[in-house]
TrEMBL record:
<keyword id="KW-1133">Transmembrane helix</keyword>
<dbReference type="Pfam" id="PF00528">
    <property type="entry name" value="BPD_transp_1"/>
</dbReference>
<keyword id="KW-1003">Cell membrane</keyword>
<feature type="transmembrane region" description="Helical">
    <location>
        <begin position="41"/>
        <end position="65"/>
    </location>
</feature>
<keyword id="KW-0812">Transmembrane</keyword>
<dbReference type="GO" id="GO:0055085">
    <property type="term" value="P:transmembrane transport"/>
</dbReference>
<comment type="similarity">
    <text>Belongs to the binding-protein-dependent transport system permease family.</text>
</comment>
<keyword id="KW-0472">Membrane</keyword>
<keyword id="KW-0813">Transport</keyword>
<protein>
    <submittedName>
        <fullName>ABC transporter permease</fullName>
    </submittedName>
</protein>
<feature type="transmembrane region" description="Helical">
    <location>
        <begin position="127"/>
        <end position="151"/>
    </location>
</feature>
<feature type="transmembrane region" description="Helical">
    <location>
        <begin position="237"/>
        <end position="259"/>
    </location>
</feature>
<dbReference type="Pfam" id="PF12911">
    <property type="entry name" value="OppC_N"/>
</dbReference>
<dbReference type="InterPro" id="IPR035906">
    <property type="entry name" value="MetI-like_sf"/>
</dbReference>
<feature type="domain" description="ABC transmembrane type-1">
    <location>
        <begin position="123"/>
        <end position="313"/>
    </location>
</feature>
<feature type="transmembrane region" description="Helical">
    <location>
        <begin position="185"/>
        <end position="206"/>
    </location>
</feature>
<feature type="transmembrane region" description="Helical">
    <location>
        <begin position="294"/>
        <end position="316"/>
    </location>
</feature>
Amino acid sequence: MTQMMPEPAQPEAGAVVTTDDDTVGVSQGRLILRRFLANRVAVVSGILFVLIAAFSVSAVGLGPIPGWWKYDFSTLNPQIDGGAPSLSLVPEWLGGAGLALGEHPFGQDRIGIDYFAMTMRGIQNSILVMFVIGIVGTVVGTVIGALAGYYRGLLDSILMRITDVFIVIPVLVIGAVVGRTTGGLGVLPLAFFLAMVSWMVIARLVRAEFLSLREREFVEAARVAGASDFRIIFKHILPNAIGVVIVAATLLAASAILLETALSYLGLGVRPPEVSLGLIISDNQSAFQTRPWLFWWPATFIVLLALLINFVGDGLRDAFDPRQKRFSLRRTKEKASS
């Protein structure tokens, strides 16, 4: 009698089938990196962001390091051609003036300061604020969320009630109070104090992850082995929640640029003699009708920086959560026709 062999189980519709060659010997970090690099939009956004940051630093320098641009963001200069931009991007064979930066490529403000130097300095300060708020806010939110989610009980109630108090108050209102108090101290103190009131969302996300992970078997095994609470939190649970932390930190950094811009525009953020993109727009808003380039350049970089960081955060979210698959019409048609 011939014994009938059972047919192999077919994968469900929409399931992701991976071969052993794709996963064997590959660490979780490499898998995350591979998925992130497969997202072209996120990779290009990250590269463009790094190039903009490097260009702004090399142009006007950073601290004692000088830049290659001959003007700075505070020196008064004689106005040339009414302060109009001298940047030319149209070749001569197309009827333009040729490819040239000119004396003041972004133009000059109403008192003669070079606008290219001011914009580059504003980009530096915006990126500095972004990194400080992103790092400090992430650290504070992660610690608070981890303690609340792991210990629960009374400590969880106290920390979450404090978080609720900060959440119900609009961030712009809190930032306005902080900016008015610390804006004159410089960019770094302003960014630090803004970070201290920007951790609430990350704290709630981390708490939710810890509430779930603390019940897993590997946590119980660590407790049985005699591991301390500190080691369990930061050596066992936190590495498994790092994906949520990184994605939330990226989104916090993107919102930090817009927060600093809004506060500086209202005169509650960065103060002269320092420069920020929002402060540049605020100082020149009265000249928008007669000199629109005073608004175009900083506004363009504000939107561009925020978009680039959001695209990078979107790519990191997809990389850390492989269940999120982008819909591809081309692939769907290919599968349907095959």
